[in-house]
Design brief:
- Strand 8 and strand 9 form a beta hairpin.
- This protein is of the alpha+beta class.
- Helix content is about 20%, strand content about 30%.
- The strands form 3 sheets. The protein has a 5-stranded antiparallel β-sheet with strand order 3-11-6-9-8, with no helix packed on it.
- It has 2 helices and 11 strands, in the order H-E-E-H-E-E-E-E-E-E-E-E-E.
């Protein structure tokens, strides 16, 4: 009985040692900052524990982002900013075909290491057009914008005191809120300059 058991164990151990290791991980080939955990164009997205229904993805992501901001604010004891830095939208009709109305509904700014500040800005589209062009101004003259992003679907362009966001892959629909992250080298103040559809 002992020789049969020893032979069986020896056979099982040699199979385990000789078989290749299964690995579900794939090596990273893109080292930019645009890595995402969902597919961008036309594929089914996952909302928590189920497949998203039409229109559910943006709402789900915004709710998730807002709850994370609220929990972070409560954790470090930061209150909502005063309403004097929240302004209604103004428009530059010379360069844009169709503009929409909207406003900044929330700004949460946090002091980070090295004198940097990270701001979470919620922009709500109050108009009837689907928006794919957003311009936000940073109003403090001594503060520079270092980084700005929404999602991998939106491209950002930073100039001296303005940040432009454009996309051809998605849009900000009526009554929808979009969360934007902006990193600056000092304490900023923001205004929403443009919501537009190209």
């Amino acid at each position: 009985m002992k020789p049969v058991l020893a032979a069986t164990l020896l056979g099982a151990i040699s199979i385990v040692i000789l078989l290749p290791v299964a690995n579900a991980l794939t090596p990273r080939s893109d080292f930019g900052d645009n890595i995402s955990t969902y597919r961008l164009l036309g594929s089914t997205k996952v909302c928590g524990d189920h497949l998203c229904k039409p229109g559910e993805w943006n709402s789900w992501i915004n709710n998730l982002f807002s709850s994370q901001i609220k929990k972070f604010s409560d954790l470090i004891g930061i209150k909502n900013p005063s309403s004097n830095i929240i302004k209604n939208t103004s428009y530059d009709t010379k360069n844009l075909l169709r503009t929409s109305s909207g406003d900044i509904t929330r700004i949460s700014t946090f002091s980070m290491d090295g004198g940097k500040f990270t701001s979470f800005i919620s922009v709500t589209n109050k108009g009837t057009l689907d928006v794919n062009h957003i311009v936000i101004s940073q109003l403090n003259p001594d503060v520079k914008t270092l980084k700005a992003w929404i999602t991998p679907q939106w491209d950002s362009s930073i100039s001296l005191y303005q940040i432009s966001f454009d996309t051809s892959k998605s849009s900000l629909t009526q009554e929808q809120t979009l969360n934007i992250v902006i990193v600056t080298d000092g304490k900023p103040a923001f205004s929403l300059d443009t919501l537009a559809s190209n």
